[in-house]
Amino acid sequence: MATEEKEMKVTRGCNFLVDEASLDDVFIPEEFDEEQQMVGQLARDFYDGSVAPVNDEIEALADGVTVNLLKEAGELGLLSVDLPERFGGFAQTKAVSMLVAESLCKNASFNTAFSCHTGIGSLPIVYFGTEEQKQKFLPGLATGEIIGAYALTEAGSGSDALAARTTAVLNDEGTEYVLNGEKLFITNGNFADLFIVFAKVDGEQFTAFIIEKNNEGLSLGAEEKKMGIKGSSTTSVILQDAKVPVENVLGEIGNGARIAFNILNVGRFKLAAAVTGGGIAAMKETVEYAKGRQQFGRPIAEFGMVQHKIAESLSRLYAARSAIYRTAGYIDQNIATIDVTDPERDSKVIDSAIREYMVECSILKVFCSEALDYTVDEVVQIYGGYGYTQEYGAERYYRDSRINRIFEGTNEINRIVVGGEVMKRAAKNSIPLFARAKALLDELTGFPDLGDDDDTSFLANERKLVNQARKIVYLAAGTMGQTLGMKLQDVWGHEELLGLLADLIMETYAMDSAVLRTMKLKERGAPDVDTFHSALTRLYCNEAMARMEITARTLLSAIVEGDDLSMALSGLRRTAKYAPANTVALRREIAEYAASHDDWGL
Amino acid sequence: MKILVGLKHVPDTETKVKVADDGVSLVEAGIKFVMSPYDEYAVEEALKLKEAAGEGEVLLVCAGPESATATLRQGLAMGADRAVLIQDPRFDRADGLVRASALASVATQESPDLVLLGKQGVGTDESQTVPMLGELLDLPHVSAVGTLEIVDGRFTAHREIEGAVEVMEGSLPAILGCEKGLNEPRYASLKGIMQAKKKTIDVRSAADAGIEDGALGEGKMVVWEKLDLPAPRSGARILEGEIDDQVVELVRCLREEEKVI
Ligand SMILES: Cc1cc2nc3c(=O)[nH]c(=O)nc-3n(C[C@H](O)[C@H](O)[C@H](O)COP(=O)(O)OP(=O)(O)OC[C@H]3O[C@@H](n4cnc5c(N)ncnc54)[C@H](O)[C@@H]3O)c2cc1C
Ligand SMILES: Cc1cc2nc3c(=O)[nH]c(=O)nc-3n(C[C@H](O)[C@H](O)[C@H](O)COP(=O)(O)OP(=O)(O)OC[C@H]3O[C@@H](n4cnc5c(N)ncnc54)[C@H](O)[C@@H]3O)c2cc1C
């Protein structure tokens, strides 16, 4: 990517809502260079050679298995892919770290431990630590000698993380903070050496601390008995007069929210990469099963309704993966503009380069975790009765998937982030959404533009559908802005609306990302783009447009009435009008391709 | 100690190959090529010997198409020091002697203390390169080495044969073909991958390596006439009922249906 990267320009967050992206600015996973592909291969080899053989031990939470694997991953450099070089890292792009994340996901439990360590367990120090803290902890985190954990949640404060009740009080000498409270559901709890703990100084100022395991006031609760990811450790962390030296305050006093939320952005997009890789791997196994399982004298892979499940899953996973690498590319392009010698670089990376794409990060988290849930549900179904037993992987994939809609911010909270942040940026005019909405109204009250329906160029219809999707967002956001205005600041009073708007925005990003990737593959002369990838894209866009019309109707009906509603709905009908493709045929094509090819290039 | 390791760039054993329209080559689109698995043991053994000696050089050599640089890069990332690619797309379907001659030319120039190869290259699995290279260079050669010891310029190699282990001793330089189980090949770590980028791959033409054009083209000694995929397996059957009845049924099937007993 190195040379191509330089030619890419920085794209603003949420820009997909207002501009058609130029293919040059969109990164696709097919652009990884030889060396980057080798890193991905290393992660896959490590999974196959070291993780897969001990799957059962991991699931049983056998002593030391996960820790030893993390250490081995550390020796190989897999824990420090995107850490700065001066602390033993390899300073690779975020896109490469996604490639690693998606390769380790076939065991969701190990992946949870890995992601927690490399993400929320290490990155707070990378981005917010002092030079001394970095020197003290990062080399150990990079090799796995120190395992990290992140303790934000409490019994009384989950989604509402800032309502934490753990307190921190400075001692009289001013040398130590004394922490009291209990953190709940802490991943890697059982074996972590270092905890990033959030507490309120004097019961008010939300602050992050670095607490080491050997701290006398720190103890652990029992392992939670969970529905899935049973091989990941989840414990409570109890702080009883835990004395933490002032040097271990992370960031500034009162700065905890900034740390907590910014780090979640990274957690979210890494989760997205991991779950998408997991979904593809699960479907791969399932297609093999369906090819071998005979009923009514034929492999069930040949039955249309089974093909429906396969194709639908693949089209969602394709859109998901396209959006993941596109977002990673944007973040990497943005990071590349920050001077490497800038002493504030690390905090600029997280505070500006990554935060800029917080909407995209939340979209990915929701979209990909839901694509995985859809996929594993159909995986169980395709396995039939065997999918319900523990003999095959299906049952485990199904259980393991469920957590992804809950942690790293529940999907409800992330939908509020997407809808709320877009409305906020629109109100500040940092994205010209309302201007576009106004232009759309003018267009809708004028003569219908019949357009050039005879455009037969590659994916012409789908490109049109993406433009229509953007317009549906303008219509929805514009109507919300106009009728609700400042009232929207009362988020809780309007959260269903923000959630519906988020769904429209997510569909738009998914459609747009799939179309752009397929266009770029076409431009690069990739094999099978005219058959497989274009079918995936067409299927996704057609189905998404149908869903969007329903969602937008629900939304509009909730905010306007009478004649205004009739007008709005007729505008919606005009905006959402399209000639549907034969999606039944598309699904068959996709499933047949999947059954006859090893490498799907999703 | 200077160790030369020969590598072959082959289709991944996991991929399902398709025969191209010409009937003698594979459809390359969609096939992943990798370092031949037996060669991984050779690279690992070379690296271990070098590490144990505390000095030395591991040189990789491959006769293959331009894309084989990926395999060489993989070996460099595992820790080898440098690499030579004798590049010609026709090496893919050349005969063993041509490939062995190409390796011999580099071995003659570099005069290594030891040459390690995989015992065979997966894909065509001819197992010819080790003995041919040994004869071309007039050096001792042993293939399918499962355990190796090197002391004072002599090697002791164990190879499993039917029901026994053969122990061969000889002097260096020698040509040894590595068998599965000789060692546990390491992963190419991130550090290795980053360092590999800075190592050189010296690309030479077949002519540079003393291979006459004819040997790769018209005048080939071995010509591939036709490639066929194995016939698809027909349906398996699971016998049911009491175990005694199953045995009777099995014998009947073997005798009457399959006619093998
Ligand atoms: C296996 C596992 C591992 C975890 N690992 C960690 C970890 O390492 N570190 C850590 O700090 N935490 C961790 N967590 C905690 C996790 O982040 C929380 O469970 C999550 O944030 C949700 O909080 P909660 O469970 O208290 O649910 P609640 O906040 O009580 O939410 C319950 C439901 O109400 C919904 N809800 C809440 N508020 C709103 C709203 N305003 N509008 C609409 N719906 C709303 C939620 O979406 C959810 O559906 C982990 C949890 C699990 C299960
Ligand atoms: C907990 C449990 C309890 C059970 N209890 C009993 C019991 O008491 N008695 C009993 O006799 N059985 C029982 N069963 C078996 C159960 O009825 C079967 O599992 C079920 O009928 C599905 O058959 P299968 O598992 O062989 O799946 P398959 O028939 O192999 O089906 C696999 C998938 O292919 C799909 N499929 C198959 N054919 C077609 C087609 N033509 N078109 C489209 N899709 C197709 C199926 O819908 C399914 O999604 C039980 C199963 C379980 C898991």
Automatic annotation (TrEMBL), chain A:
Residues 469-574 form the Acyl-CoA dehydrogenase-like C-terminal domain. Residues 34-145 form the Acyl-CoA dehydrogenase/oxidase N-terminal domain. It comes from the Bacteria. Its cofactor is FAD. Pfam families: Acyl-CoA-dh_C, Acyl-CoA_dh_1, Acyl-CoA_dh_M, Acyl-CoA_dh_N. InterPro entries: Acyl-CoA-dh-like_C, Acyl-CoA_DH_CS, Acyl-CoA_Oxase/DH_mid-dom, Acyl-CoA_Oxase/DH_mid-dom_sf, AcylCo_DH-like_C, AcylCo_DH/oxidase_C, AcylCoA_DH/ox_N, AcylCoA_DH/ox_N_sf. This is Acyl-CoA dehydrogenase family protein. Residues 149-241 form the Acyl-CoA oxidase/dehydrogenase middle domain. PANTHER family: ACYL-COA DEHYDROGENASE, ISOVALERYL-COA DEHYDROGENASE, MITOCHONDRIAL-RELATED. One of its GO terms (molecular function) is flavin adenine dinucleotide binding. Residues 254-419 form the Acyl-CoA dehydrogenase/oxidase C-terminal domain. It catalyses: a 2,3-saturated acyl-CoA + A = a 2,3-dehydroacyl-CoA + AH2. Belongs to the acyl-CoA dehydrogenase family. Keywords: FAD, Flavoprotein, Oxidoreductase.
From TrEMBL, chain B:
Residues 23-213 form the Electron transfer flavoprotein alpha/beta-subunit N-terminal domain. One of its GO terms (molecular function) is electron transfer activity. It holds the Pfam family ETF. Keywords: Electron transport, Transport. SMART domains: ETF. It comes from the Bacteria. InterPro entries: ETF_a/b_N, ETF_b, ETF_beta_N, Rossmann-like_a/b/a_fold. Coiled coil: none annotated. CDD domains: ETF_beta. Belongs to the ETF beta-subunit/FixA family. This is Electron transfer flavoprotein subunit beta.
